[in-house]
Amino acid sequence: MPGLFNTLTTAADALGVFSQALNTVGNNVENSGTPGFARQDFNAVALPFDPRMGLEGGVVAGEIQNSRDEYAEQTVWTDQQAFGTADQSVTELSSVEPLFNVTGDSGIPQALDSLFQSFSALSVSPNDAVARNNVLSSATELTHQFNSTVTGLGNASLNLNQRIASAASTINGLTQQIAQLNTQIDSDPQSASDQAVDATLHNAIESLAEYANITVLRQPGGSVTVLLDGQTPLVMANQHYTIQASTGSGATVVQDASGKDVTNQLTGGRLAAMINIRNTVLPGYCNSLNQLAAGISDQVNNALLNGVDQSGNQGAQLFSYSSPSDAAATFQVTGITTDQLAAALPSAPGGNGNALNLAALANSPQVAGMTFTQYYSSLASQVGQSLNTAKQDQTTQQDLLDQARATRSDTQGVSLDTEAIKMLEYQRAYQATSHMVTILNDLTQNLMDMLQS
Amino acid sequence: MPRGESQLRLAEAAAERARRLLLFPSAANLDRSRPFLEQACANLEEVRRLAGEQPPARKRELLAGLTVLRQTGRRVTALLEGAARFRAGWFEALKVATAAGYNQAGEPAPSMPPRSLSVEG
To answer: What is the predicted ipTM?
Structure first.
């Protein structure tokens, strides 16, 4: 009788174990669409079977194992961060690029062309009132174009300030969420193996990685420590440490909870991309425009001062700006009148000698060894090239992120032995495929060189 | 249409198929991607044979197509490097795990270098 009783007990236990296994499978199915979710595996543990010793065998429920692999997670976070950087760069540069026209049919290049055409027309009819008036109106239009381009860059900078503040707020929200999950895990050890908590935690970390270069350290109890650039704490146990963006007319600065400047620690993610464009890229474009505006103003004014106006007096300046550091924003036409334009040289009053000199400025190197138009074209193509490179990075990083996510799913819960056996197989496959990719890239480049020659 | 245009399109399509396979970089997919890359190379050889003497405008059209192909080639390279980098790190982690097991957090435990103690006296 005891034997039959034991057998029935064993069978009942086994049914209980299978019920738990079904629950785990059901959980996996139910949560498969949850962001951050990792499959859990149910392990049934066999009990010793030896009837002579009274051991009836059977199974009991073992520990439920989370098949999340932290190495694969780290890879996803790294790629998420790189994608965030590239994607944000595209967003920001796309809003700036339209300010720089490269075709020459509008904006600064067209205004520049009109100004030098007006100098040419003046050299043909140096005493014609219409020609003189055209010089002044073309000059005014050119200054307006500079002013509006710099205003556009200023607006882009202001918009960026808002987005930087918003990104800092998003980061703070995510770190707060992670700290709350840490509290839950630390107060209830069972939470560490709770699928929903685990999925929410990993989802929050993945979202955070898109915004900043973070380091995540898993603590023995299951909670996580999150550091910015491996040094500034964002989350420790149940505490989250806020960051704050301080935006003004100068460089935007990010401070940690203690007020320390941590801007230089931001090397990846959306916030870093915004800071880079706000503090480095846009000021660089402004500096180039300042240099160009100051160059045009100085060279044209010098030429005019070397000539004489219609009354035979020394010529007056056409342009002015307040200082080289904000020349483009303050670029304007002086109160010069049409008859004060010095079209003639002192040696030949009433002639066109100086108008010819003014027109010739268009074709000689004036700024950084380039003509005015070349200098502007170089700046505009630099803006376009930066956007193009950012778009290529965005596409590549999206690929790498998709790949990392696919690989994460692929490597969850794999057997060590199976993976070790696969190592040689992978090495062979990588070498062979890499060889073919190199051939393809070389062939493409050779063909491009051939067609360009 | 410039001579070699259709072969260039075939090369781009083949490279794109290889790229899609490498988004899921199992050893089997790596092997599957190779014939497409070989096909792309063969198509490019055809383009080179046909593209020689053409008006500049036609050459520019081909160059535009090659620029797209070059970008796809770069994406394929990045995916291959990304997958190789992952596997290298993954095997390193497995190697350590096999030798030293896992810690409580489920991560590979740091392996301890072999040490010995000798007592003399």
So the answer is: 0.79
CA A208 to chain centre: 15
Residue A238: how many other CB atoms lie within 10 Å = 16
Handedness of CA A345, A346, A348, A349 (dihedral sign): positive
A421 touches chain B (CB under 8 A): no
Are A206 and A197 within 8 A, CB to CB? no
Q: Which of A110, A142, A119, A105 is nearest to A296 (CA)?
A: A142
Beta bridge partners of A177: none
- Please answer yes or no on whether A406 and B23 come within 8 Å at the CB atom: yes
- A439 contact B CB<8A: yes
Strand duo A40-46 + A59-66: pairing: antiparallel
B51: contact with A, CB 8 A cutoff: yes
DSSP letter string, A10-44:
HHHHHHHHHHHHHHHHHHHHHHTTSTT---EEEEE
Block residue for tokens 């057998």:
A7
Q: Which residue of B has its CA nearest to A79?
A: B82
Strand, coil or helix: A236: strand
Task: Return phi, psi of residue A369, to 5°.
Answer: 75, 10
pTM (two decimals): 0.80
User: Number of C-alpha atoms within 13 angstroms, CB side, residue A206?
Assistant: 19
Do residue B97 and residue A416 have CB atoms under 8 angstroms apart? Answer: yes
Q: Residues A113-147: pLDDT tens digits?
A: 999 999 999 999 999 999 999 999 999 999 999 99
In chain A, residues 316-335 whose CB comes closer than 8 Å to chain B: none
Q: Which residues of A are less than 8 Å from B78 in CB distance?
A: 396, 399-400
Residue A367, classed as helix, strand or coil, is strand
Q: How far, in Å, CA of A158 to CA of A415, rounded?
A: 53
CB pairs under 8 A between A and B: 143
Distance from CA of B120 to the nearest CA of A (A): 39
| Cα angle A39-A45-A49, degrees, rounded to a multiple of 5 | 160
The 10s digit of each residue's pLDDT in A22-72 is 565 555 555 555 555 555 555 556 666 666 666 666 666 555 555 557 788
For residue A407, the distance in angstroms to the closest alpha carbon of chain B comes to 7
Helices (H), B1-121: 5-22, 27-51, 56-100
Residue A66 is inside which H or E element, if any?
strand A59-66
The DSSP letter of residue A447 is: H
Note whether A432 contacts B: Cβ–Cβ < 8 A.
yes
Structure tokens at A383: 């803006």
Cβ–Cβ under 8 Å, residues A175 and A242 = yes
How buried is A311 (Cβ within 10 angstroms: 0-12 exposed, 13-18 middle, 19+ buried)?
exposed
- Do A213 and A207 form a contact (C-beta atoms < 8 A)? no
How many whole angstroms separate alpha carbon A327 and alpha carbon A295? 9
Pseudo-torsion of CA B42, B44, B46, B50, nearest 10°?
180
